[in-house]
Amino acid sequence: MGITSFLEYLQYQKRYSSHTLTAYRTDLEAFSQFLETEYQLSSEWDQVNHQMIRYWIVRLSEEGLTSKSINRKLSCLKSFFRFLVKEGNITSNPMQKVMAPKQSRKLWRVITEEEASYLLDDIPFPDDERGRQEKMIVSTLYNTGMRLSELINLRVGDVQVQNQYIRVLGKRNKERFIPVSGTFEQELKEYIAGESETRQMAQDSSFFVTHRGKKLYPKLVYNLVNKYISLVSGIENKSPHTLRHSFATHMLNRGADLNSIKELLGHSSLSATQVYTHNSVDQLKQLYNTAHPRGEKKS
User: Fold this and answer.
1) Domain CATH for 7
2) pTM of the complete model
3) Which of 18, 24, 28, 47 has the fewest C-beta atoms lying within 10 Å of its C-beta?
């Protein structure tokens, strides 16, 4: 029992996404190759010790991998060896003696509320079917905070405009409901009406499709989001995730509580949501400097 059994366990019992399974497979195969090259071990998992894993960390660091990337691989190993212990294949988990390298906290940059308004209200999207869909994709990412994979897998039946919500299947098929209202609700109604005239919108069909009627793919969405954010902002990262971060940050700035944002984003723990407080702290500092009588530094 080894990598294959572990991946089947993740797929059928833990219901991990195909993206996560691919990443785990890649990491485990790379570690297995390292063991074979350095220690002539081939699936003898009971002979793996913490020194071997520490040496692998050193090698990964020498290859230029960041602490974040290394920690992701170590997380994979931790789950893998825990599985082997549970199944009785090994008696102890070598990962218990491995310390993960410290990583600096990455603060995501977001577009401003003014830039978001300009992007959705003033930027001229092409006045055709493709342009209407591109605008709807950008608007959906910003107005719901959903992940790229969630957008791609969105079905027609998930978008319940009449009930004012969108059903989203997140990581590990965790279901959540995102409310829609106001301008975004109207945009959805108009988009659905226009699409219904040009294609069959069966309940189980993809909500967004390519010009050939096929399911969207990540690179396509990334490129179009990058293109449109570039028109309004000079931030370095211009990905779909930037719009997700902007959604959360702007809601927090306007008074939404962390628990509500956590539910909307589909986070499993509050600690993952707390990263968004950095922009609110920046806003509070600016407000203090402007409004408090002793906030401004004397020149």
Assistant:
1) 1.10.150.130
2) 0.65
3) 18
Q: Is 278 a catalytic residue?
A: no
User: Phi first, then psi: what are they for 176, rounded to 5°?
Assistant: -145, 165
Sequence-separated (6 or more) residues with CB below 8 Å from residue 169: 150, 153, 158, 175
Q: Is 19 considered catalytic here?
A: no
Is 217 in the active site? no
Residue with tokens 């990581």: 171
Bridge partners, residue 178, by sequence: 166
Active site residue 276: yes
Given 109, 176, 241, 278, which residue is catalytic? 241
Query: How far, in Å, CA of 165 to CA of 163, rounded?
Result: 6
What is the distance, to the nearest Å, from the Cα of residue 116 to the centroid of all Cα atoms in its chain? 20
CA-CA distance, 222 to 229, in Å (whole number)? 11
Q: Does residue 171 have an active-site annotation?
A: yes
What average pLDDT does range 177-200 have in this prediction? Answer: 91
Average pLDDT, integer, range 273-287: 62
Q: Are residues 117 and 262 in the same domain?
A: yes
Q: Residues 240-275: pLDDT tens digits? A: 999 999 999 999 888 888 889 999 999 888 777 777
**d(Cα 239, Cα 246) in Å, to the nearest integer?**
11
Longest CA pairwise span in the chain (Å): 70
Point out the catalytic residue in the list 135, 147, 245, 250.
147
Are 227 and 135 in the same domain?
Answer: yes
